[in-house]
Amino acid sequence: MATTKQLICLANSRKHRGRCIAGIDIKSNTWIRPISSRPGHEVSESERTYRNGAEPRVLDVISMRLLRQRQFGYQSENWILDSSVRWTKLTRIEWDDLYRIEQRPMQLWINSGDSTARGLNDRIPVEREGEITDSLKLIRVDSLKITVGRPYDANRDLDVRAEFHHAGSDYILKVTDSVYEEKFRKRGIGTYRLAESFLTVSLGEEFKGYLYKMVAGIIERRQANVGSRWISAR
């Protein structure tokens, strides 16, 4: 059944030729990932932009019309969006509001010990998919390191990865946050340090036998305190 949700946007990341948008519903405090009905499920520019043409930003509170839930395996957060209704920005939240929705998993799904050449704890064999029931986490880290390197394929853009420590484990994950990916590619090859941040970590769809963990959203403390007010879930 179609419904209208008010979502705290926590990810606007690159996916195929569109974006993957995800956030937490302020009423139920549960994750929602609006998706298109196309095979890749990516959200196009016309489907996600506001009436004034602006792109949704992390920390925006967005009103959107959704048609129905459409779970794909462990991606239990998926909802088919209503492309006939434009999204509306209601307000923005601030850094301190994020503490209310922070998650504290003991690990990011499964640390199988099977990492990529440039990553660490960044993928899970598809054979273990049955142990996973969700695909989005919002965690807080004291600091992180962004590394920009040359891509495996010379025809592709520079590779951007986030290195951080969480709940006793170390991670090096690919960054798909569209803003931070572009920002650090412009800075060029090198290593950059960020202070305390919230990270939206996403578990992508199966690719060549693995499920890959990605940093789909980065929120730095110094950039977050520009919001308006918190909308109560009550």
Instruction: Output the radius of gyration.
Output: 17 Å
- List segments where confidence is low: pLDDT < 50 over at least 5 consecutive residues: 226-234
Largest sheet: 8 strands, mixed
What is the number of helical segments per DSSP (H or I, 4+ residues)? 4
Order of helices and strands: EEEHEEEHEEEEEHEEEH
| Beta content | 35-45%
Roughly what is the average pLDDT, rounded to an integer?
92
**Overall outline:** globular
The level of helicity is: under 10%
CA distance, first residue to last residue = 22 Å
Question: Which structural class do the helices and strands define?
Answer: mainly beta
Number of strands: 14
Short description:
The chain is 9% helix and 42% strand. The chain has helices at 45-48, 95-98, 178-187, 221-224; strands at 3-15, 18-25, 31-35, 60-69, 78-81, 88-92, 123-125, 136-141, 144-149, 159-166, 169-175, 190-194, 197-203, 210-220.
